[in-house]
UniProtKB/TrEMBL annotation:
Keywords: Cell membrane, Membrane, Transmembrane, Transmembrane helix. This is UPF0344 protein WCV65_06370. Its main location: membrane. It is found in: Cell membrane. The chain crosses the membrane at residues 6-24, 36-57, 63-81, 93-111. The keyword Transmembrane helix applies. Pfam families: DUF1516 (PF07457). HAMAP family: UPF0344 (MF_01536). It comes from Metabacillus sediminis. InterPro entries: UPF0344. It is a multi-pass membrane protein. Belongs to the UPF0344 family.
């Protein structure tokens, strides 16, 4: 299940940046399609993340922080795309996204189920 979770995250990030660049290029219909596919990946990420979290034998605060940071990251990705579509400012959300992404990646590599321990 950890491989599904990591793959979903990677594809989710690729789709997020693809949607961002499609919006900036003015392609409304392709942006909408990629954004909807990205929303399906949000669901995959959350379901696989909860499954991985439930499979952990010793649940400590780091896992909970990583899970909450992952949810925060998904929320930020969605808020950035929706606010872009509405023409609103997204600078603060980009700063939060970078912080959340760094936190999730650092905890993902550090924790026993992370990339370095597969």
């Amino acid at each position: 299940m950890i491989h599904l979770h990591i793959t979903s995250w990677i594809l989710g990030l690729v789709l997020f940046f693809a949607a961002y660049y499609l919006h900036n290029s003015g392609s409304a219909k392709p942006f909408k399609i990629v954004h909807m596919i990205l929303r399906v990946f949000y669901i995959l990420i959350i379901i696989s993340g909860v499954t991985v979290l439930l499979s952990v034998s010793v649940l400590n605060a780091e896992y909970i922080i990583k899970g909450l940071s992952g949810l925060w990251l998904i929320a930020l990705m969605e808020m950035i795309l929706v606010r872009l579509k509405k023409g609103k400012n997204v600078r603060g959300f980009w700063i939060q996204l970078i912080i959340a992404l760094v936190l999730v990646l650092l905890l993902g590599w550090r924790l026993p189920l992370g990339v370095l321990h597969m």
